[in-house]
Design the sequence.
């Protein structure tokens, strides 16, 4: 450590620059007009795996983006080393406007919403007909999140060899949701996979479902070899599955033009962020009837104009019941 004597010169004194002197002199950010377009495939501890043309590139978010985070499915602009070689790192400098967003909160009292997937066209809600038992309330919550985020829902019912699908299909019949029913034998033979693939071709589909329903097994059969995840089992005591997917991952659809996004198994699906005025958009036969509703109508109160709309024969009463059942999921727990 250097020590100064009595007769030190000013040039000998080392001064620490003030914080004000280290700030940028302008808020103008570079345009990065030469940035390449990419697709976020997965996110892991601040590192994002992106597809740039036909190369897989590791990247990190640029500081200039602030707190805005990129998620799986985001279309991004990247600069830096885009070769995809080992130990190289690119930088994400822009995130394109999203066409749809699948959000959730930890529970209904949690104001912090988490974006699970961006830009997906479809939400495939996977549920087993037995082992573990279906959880209709959780399905309802996934459907509300899909309607709220601008995704079209698809029901995928697995393990039909253990229980018939009739009761569950009847519960959602008035919502006109497309569905596919599969069994273990059909999955092994590939017959069920072909039916599922027909619903996914040409689209970006996010798969959700609680653990043990066979979601990851189904995804593995839909994606190219070498890009699959491990699968788990159902606990014989609790009747719940073990989480085998820890982060969302986008994978190209095998034998078709589309993408499959596998998401972590759900134990809950909070809807604190959901606005009833957005969910009604998924019910075009009921939406015109809301014009006479009071401001901030929950669509389940005495003054709701939808009751008169349905009574006048403009829509099926079963559709109004389905809407109110979905909107009421915020007041009910999944296990109720």
Sequence:
């Amino acid at each position: 450590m250097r020590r100064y004597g009595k007769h030190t010169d000013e040039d000998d004194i080392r001064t620490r620059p003030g914080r004000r002197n280290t700030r940028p002199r302008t808020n103008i950010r570079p345009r990065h007009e030469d940035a390449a377009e990419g697709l976020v495939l997965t996110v892991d501890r601040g590192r994002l795996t992106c597809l740039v043309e036909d190369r897989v590139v590791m990247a990190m978010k640029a500081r200039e983006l602030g707190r805005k985070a990129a998620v799986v499915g985001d279309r991004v602009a990247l600069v830096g080393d885009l070769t995809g070689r080992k130990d190289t790192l690119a930088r994400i400098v822009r995130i394109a406007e999203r066409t749809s967003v699948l959000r959730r909160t930890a529970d209904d009292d949690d104001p912090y919403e988490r974006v699970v997937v961006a830009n997906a066209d479809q939400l495939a809600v996977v549920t087993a007909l037995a082992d573990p038992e279906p959880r209709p309330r959780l399905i309802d919550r996934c459907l509300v999140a899909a309607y709220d985020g601008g995704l079209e829902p698809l029901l995928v019912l697995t393990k039909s060899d253990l229980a018939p699908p009739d009761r569950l299909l009847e519960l959602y019949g008035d919502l006109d949701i497309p569905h596919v029913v599969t069994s273990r034998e059909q999955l092994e033979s590939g017959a069920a996979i072909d039916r599922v693939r027909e619903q996914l071709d040409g689209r970006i589909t996010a798969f959700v479902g609680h653990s043990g329903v066979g979601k990851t097994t189904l995804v593995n059969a839909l994606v190219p070899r070498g890009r699959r995840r491990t699968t788990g089992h159902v606990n014989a005591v609790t009747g719940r599955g073990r989480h085998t997917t820890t982060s969302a991952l986008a994978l190209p659809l095998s034998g078709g033009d589309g993408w499959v996004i596998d998401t972590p198994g759900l134990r809950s699906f909070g809807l604190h962020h959901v606005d009833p005025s957005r969910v009604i958009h998924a019910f075009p036969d009921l939406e015109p009837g809301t014009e006479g509703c009071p401001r901030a109508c929950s669509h389940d109160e005495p003054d709701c104009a939808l009751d008169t709309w349905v009574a006048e024969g403009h829509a099926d009463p079963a559709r109004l019941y389905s809407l109110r059942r979905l909107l009421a999921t915020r007041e009910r727990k999944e296990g109720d």
Q: What stands out?
A: The chain has a mean pLDDT of 83.
